[in-house]
């Protein structure tokens, strides 16, 4: 076991010396698939989230109250619910569920955006619900992206995802302008459709909960479950004597003393 650990460390040192770029994310099939899906997810959640935040002032009711309610619910979703959920159910399924739920909420907000007061209130409720769901994805995507990429290229993969999110931030206001030129429901339909697509593609990513993270690109396609092997007490009589032995190191000199003496 010790020799395997040393060999793994040597391989990691060799790979760390090589610098990886964005092109390497597309060069390897496993990384290419994950990068394309994660790029879509990062783009969609930033695109949909900013679009819904900017549309708060156009919803029925007090815009300040709407913003406060959505922020409070989003905080509860992120800190009180999501962290528990991803620790129990993993990353893939909760993220897909949030995306689908947010997409359906956005589409319903668009379909119900009529002139009647009751329907406008429903539109507000579904729009705020969509924002809360997308906010839940934000608390998953950083962890999930970091776990999906091997150590040697993790920073490149995470940086690429953040870049896609910034592109979504650029596009979102233009979709709201499109709604002003056409119909009010158009932005909600676009945001919702994009989130539904995201929730579907998220199911093609592997689960990383309790999995040993890959260190090299060669290990990227294999996730091994982390298992803890309990240390069984040995029955050898000499072991009971060794339990009283304390190892101390001072200035690279190791001294062994018997506490029983």
Automatic annotation (TrEMBL):
Major location category of this protein = membrane
Return the annotated region ranges for Disordered.
226-261
Biased composition of type Polar residues is found at 233-244
Residue spans crossing the bilayer: 36-55, 67-86, 95-113, 125-144, 156-179, 185-205
- GO terms for MF: transmembrane transporter activity
* Pfam families the UniProt entry points to: Sugar_tr
Q: Where in the cell is it found?
A: Membrane
* UniProt keyword annotations, A-Z: Membrane, Transmembrane, Transmembrane helix
Instruction: Please verify whether the record's keywords include Cell division.
Output: no
What is the membrane topology noted in the UniProt record heading this document?
Multi-pass membrane protein
SUPFAM superfamilies cross-referenced by the UniProt entry: MFS general substrate transporter
A Gene Ontology term for the protein's cellular component: membrane
Specify the protein name. Organic cation transporter
Q: Which organism is it from?
A: Paramuricea clavata
């Amino acid at each position: 076991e010790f020799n395997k650990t040393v060999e793994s460390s040597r391989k990691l040192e060799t790979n760390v010396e090589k610098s990886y770029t964005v092109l390497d994310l597309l060069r390897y099939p496993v990384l290419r698939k994950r990068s394309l899906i994660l790029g879509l997810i990062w783009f969609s959640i930033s695109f949909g989230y900013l679009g819904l935040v900017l549309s708060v002032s156009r919803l029925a009711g007090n815009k300040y109250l709407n913003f406060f309610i959505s922020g409070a619910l989003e905080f509860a979703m992120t800190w009180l619910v999501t962290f528990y959920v991803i620790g129990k159910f993993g990353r893939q399924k909760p993220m897909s569920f949030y995306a689908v739920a947010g997409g359906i909420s956005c589409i319903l907000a668009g379909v119900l955006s009529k002139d009647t007061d009751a329907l406008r209130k429903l539109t507000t409720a579904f729009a705020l619900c969509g924002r809360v769901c997308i906010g839940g994805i934000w608390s998953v995507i950083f962890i999930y992206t970091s776990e999906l990429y091997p150590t040697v290229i993790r920073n490149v993969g995470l940086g690429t995802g953040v870049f896609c999110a910034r592109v979504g931030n650029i596009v979102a206001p233009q979709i709201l302008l499109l709604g002003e030129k056409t119909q009010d429901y158009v932005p909600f339909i676009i945001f919702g459709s994009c989130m539904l697509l995201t929730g579907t593609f998220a199911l093609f990513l592997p689960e990383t909960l309790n999995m040993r993270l890959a260190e090299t690109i060669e290990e990227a396609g294999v996730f091994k479950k982390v298992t803890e092997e309990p240390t069984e007490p040995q029955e050898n009589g000499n072991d009971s004597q060794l339990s009283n032995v304390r190892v101390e190191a001072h200035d690279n000199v190791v001294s062994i003393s018997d506490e029983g003496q």
